[in-house]
Task: structure prediction
Amino acid sequence: MTDTTATPKTATLSGSGLSAEPDPTPARRTWQAFRRNPLGVGSAIVLVLLGVVALCAPLIAPFPEGYGTDTSQPPSAAHWFGTDDVGQDVFAQVIWGTRVSITVGVSASALAIVIGLLVGVTAAYFKRLDAPLGVLIDLCLSLPVLPLMILVAALAGPSVRTLVIVIALFSWPEVARVVRSQALAIVPLPYIAAARVVGGSPLWIIRKHLLPGVVPVVGVSVVLTTSRAVLSEAGLAFLGLGDPNSWSWGTILHKAQLSGSLATAWWTTLFPSLAILVLVVAATLLSVAYNDARNHRR
Result:
């Protein structure tokens, strides 16, 4: 006589090797989708390598200074990227320029993210401030950014700190607009209302509930803002508004322009331009891949 006792469903699943697994967290789903994107992974590797080059610049090449005997030499085994009009090695300039350009880009991006995050969250949570802050954001976005950046940088004087502050002050409105849009969709949700009912202060609600909801959007903004900051720094430095005592990719282009090497020594401008291009393209592809992974639907 066969046993007709019903076997529990969990045991059946366990016996057949089909054990139930919990659903992955949103962060894990994002990572699983991201690592399947070769362009995103490759872009992340490129950005990490640029960061390593910036940190290890003293170990890779000596600081370019003084004068050399091999002036305006094309790329060779002795000088991989050639030399400029005073005999300085262009490879060393690009390596040390990576440190300054990435430092300015990351610092300006971090400051812009902080300002944009505070303004965007404040505008979304406090309804009385939404209209005036929204007008302020739209007004800042409508300003001619490049001429104003040139004017402010020229008045403040050339330095790395000036570039960081100037770029951040003209970059935060885009972050604030994105954060405000995301936060406006979170504020009406039931758990925000429940937090108010139980007596949560606005600062506690923003810190515990609102900020975690906008962090994924901020993650995309960090990469894009950094790449735009690097481009802005290169443009300002190319116009002679960078720190004359330090090297950046824009400074290399500026000195090549002053020496007339733009037309006679192509290597003095090609390699710093390629460095800027690689960073901006990698940052853009990384942000696109991350955004696609975050919005991935199986």
Q: What stands out?
A: The chain has one domain: 52-62+86-294. Confidence is low (pLDDT under 50) at residues 1-20. The radius of gyration is 26 Å.
